[in-house]
Amino acid sequence: EQINKGHYEHYMQKEIHEQPESLTTTMRGRLIRLGSNKSKSVLLGGLKDHLKTIRRSRRVVFIGCGTSYNAALAARPILEELSGIPVTMEIASDLLDREGPLYREDTAVFVSQSGETADTLLALQYALDNGALCVGITNTVGSAIARNTHCGVHINAGAEIGVASTKAYTSQIVVMVMLALAIGGDTISNQARREAIIDGLFDLPNKVREVLKLDEEMKDLAKLLIAEQSLLVFGRGYNYATALEGALKVKEVALMHSEGILAGEMKHGPLALVDETLPIVVVATRDACFSKQQSVIQQLHARKGRLIVMCSKGDATSVCPNEYCRVIEVPQVEDCLQPVINVVPLQLLAYHLTVLRGFNVDQPRNLAKSVTTQ
Ligand code: G6P
């Protein structure tokens, strides 16, 4: 077992640190340069016979559980932007509880690391019964979801052992960004945007390597938060998913109550929780939502909130309202790829909190890697 962990103490730690490599494997052979002008494109072999049908669909429905749902949520805006197709989100169990409408004209995308999660598998059967085109995005070749969908994309992140998903999450996001590029097609008007995203994908493993250098800093932050009862994480836009996923990591492994909050909803309830003791992480990296997040920081500060701000490198002084505010500075990348970078410090924080609090990192109590019962 120790051999598989290499020089790491835990699988989760190893899997967090191997993300530059797992992301490289996920993209291998899929980003290509075409024609004499070397324009860049994406090739997803498992989808090529179905791309036309997907482009004609009335709606794309993302379906998953836990971390896989969060990964799909991170990719939703870029799929909407590049394809113009409405994208809706479904937690698999909730879709089944409601027997929500799914149509022949829908493309249902099933996101699952294991490819075996019972709720997701049942939702797949339901979508097949309703005649939707079913696409699988899994990390397990030959899994039930990979076998029973019409087409799909393998994540190729390598086996993930830690119950809390880390490298599968970032690879899922990258696969879904590539899916957005593939569905979106090449038009003159979006060419510059597409090229910027593809260049960003090529460079992403390097940027993840850079953000992993925050390890010690996150350990120090974990020491500060070790005895807390609760941690809030505010995000919006591309990083609403980061807020949900960061909070999920903290609660599932560090066994600390944590909640990811859509910052746009702050005034509709969460603001009542703010005082000088409750730690709050605000994700405020540069993108179209940046100025709104600056105003969220101001409002939390006005209520004496205990702030930890995640911002783009160089922004620390402009985002921090006072010297008590802690900062996590991360490298800036193309907006739709930023969730891949931003989740890493939160994965590290959850990991160190767990070790410091003395809990089982790789097998948190009551949880299973793959939930194959309903
Ligand atoms: C379990 C795991 C989570 C995972 C979820 C969905 O709850 O503990 O880490 O996100 O299942 O699993 P899947 O294999 O479908 O991605």
TrEMBL record:
Occurrences of domain SIS (ranges): 50-189, 221-364
Superkingdom classification of source: Eukaryota
GO biological-process terms attached to the record: fructose 6-phosphate metabolic process; protein N-linked glycosylation; UDP-N-acetylglucosamine metabolic process
Keywords on record: Aminotransferase, Coiled coil, Glutamine amidotransferase, Repeat, Signal, Transferase
GO molecular function: carbohydrate derivative binding; glutamine-fructose-6-phosphate transaminase (isomerizing) activity
Keyword Protein transport: no
Name under which the protein is recorded: glutamine--fructose-6-phosphate transaminase (isomerizing)
Originating organism: Canavalia gladiata (Sword bean)
